[in-house]
Design a protein that fits this description.
Layout: E1 9-11, E2 19-24, H1 35-47, E3 54-59, H2 78-97, E4 101-106, E5 109-111, H3 113-120, E6 123-126, E7 131-133, H4 145-152, H5 154-162, E8 166-168, H6 169-175, E9 180-181, H7 187-197, H8 203-212, H9 218-230, H10 234-246
Parallel strand pairs: 2-3, 3-4, 4-6, 5-7, 6-9
Antiparallel strand pairs: 1-2, 7-8
Amino acid sequence: MVVMSDGDALLGAVDDRGIRELALNRPDKANALNAGIVRRLHALLDEIGDETRVLVVKGAGRHFCGGFDFEGVEAQSEGDLVLRFVQINELLARLRRAPYLTVAWVRGAAFGAGADIVCACAWRYGAARARFRFPGFQFGVALGTRRLAELIGAQRAREVLAGNQTLDATAAHAAGLLSEVIDEADFETRLATLDAATAGLDRAARRALLRVTAGADHDADLADLVRSVARPGIHERIARYRQATAA
């Protein structure tokens, strides 16, 4: 697909089926979410209108998204950190509430907020090398939790989150996180099948279907997130997590 926007996130042109791509484009940083890319993603979502039936969310390079970018976090105030996490939470909410079909295509790692982006999409396809981890509670941040529990069940979500488990593609599919595991060469064919299967939905029916099946309580998600990030000691918690994972 033709790229319309340059930078750390790329929005493709709409094809004749109403399908377009939104790509995270920081491959040298595993597409990790710094403040700039999150703002850019919000701006690109603003550009999407009724011409779009299906939005494919993907990552450039080997990975989908490495999660929250911690570079320079020591110099940021607690207020700055709250704002950054809130903007990510609102990105997840926008994908959940989108009036078009959202499709995550995962190759490689989808960790932290990156895994939450996958969960926010209505259809979630992964290659055999896809893998997922949700480390937020290791530094006390509640992001995307209700959606994960909605997909894989409350008890399995507790196990994954408390133990900081890594799920490979097979385990993610078995749990319900991935809709399907497919060969990378077959993604376009699978996308065409999904497009054909949903072609009978007019705009109003598509919006209604997605709205009534969205599930998560966005206001509650936001409240839980803000409370978790605003709890005193966020810098220390992040530092301990980074030290533990670097060891």
